[in-house]
Amino acid sequence: MNHSKTLNLLLAFAVVLLIFQISYQKEDTKEQESNSETIEELVDYAQGEKISISGTPALYPTPTAVIGTEINGKPNWIQIAHIGHIGMKGLILSIGKAHYSNRGIKKHKTLSINMVSEAMIVKADYVGMKSGADTDKSKVFDYFNGSLKGAPMIKESPITMECKVVDVYDTEHHDNFVVEVENTYANKSILDEESNIDFSKVKPILFEMSKKKYIKTGKIVGDAWKDGANYKAD
């Protein structure tokens, strides 16, 4: 009887081990196929024919963020994707002149930048579709305030920045706000052991203009200031 039980346990263990090995092999095969597809794409881009598509701006996809302002004592939100770095500390936000949010930004000389997570897409897209001039968007997000007046920040955003406006670069159709980040708030769950933001955990949402789609990032494909050391000139 004891021998029978032992044999059954050994057989059960062998079956579990076999299932685990098969599952592992499948995942490994998927990863290899994924890597192979990536390599093939790179080869195709290098060897494929290039054609002109006019003067299309092609730096998309770009980070999607909800900008927080205060107008008439209420929070107001707008989603934008035209955000860029100026040097190491400055940022620039390009917002169409007609947008209601610009009034609050110009009055207080402050704003917040709230990165959009996948869970926020519906709300973020909504505040980008509706104008604060005819829609009260103050209750769309729960918010908190930092040290700057007029820069409410979204609680559910993984990363929020309260910023002061240091300059406005005026163009025909857009107000381009040059800002400095006064303070950044990040959810603890997205920080590494040294309190640096781990963007592979954040998986920020990007906006792609040509097809009007949102794209989720997250996969690390290389090491900056390191991979280049492997380059060998012909």
Question: How would you portray this structure in words?
Answer:
With 234 residues, this protein is α+β, with helices and mostly antiparallel strands. It has 2 domains: 1-41; 62-216, Electron Transport, Fmn-binding Protein, Chain A (Pnp Oxidase, Chain A, Roll), CATH 2.30.110.10. The chain has 4 helices and 12 strands. The chain has helices at residues 2-47, 101-108, 121-129, 199-202; strands at residues 62-63, 65-71, 74-80, 83-86, 90-96, 110-115, 143-144, 153-154, 159-170, 174-186, 205-208, 213-216. The longest helix has 46 residues, at 2-47. It is globular, with a radius of gyration of 24 Å. The protein starts with a helix and ends in an 18-residue tail after the last strand.
User: CATH homologous superfamily of the largest domain?
Assistant: Electron Transport, Fmn-binding Protein, Chain A
Oligomer: single chain
Q: Give me the CATH architecture of the largest domain, please.
A: Roll
Shape: globular
The succession of helices and strands, N to C, reads HEEEEEHEHEEEEHEE
Approximately how much helix is present in the residues? 25-40%
CATH class of the largest domain: Mainly Beta
| Percent of residues in beta strands | 25-35%
CATH fold assignment of the largest domain? Pnp Oxidase, Chain A
Radius of gyration: 24 Å
Supply the helix-strand structural class: alpha+beta
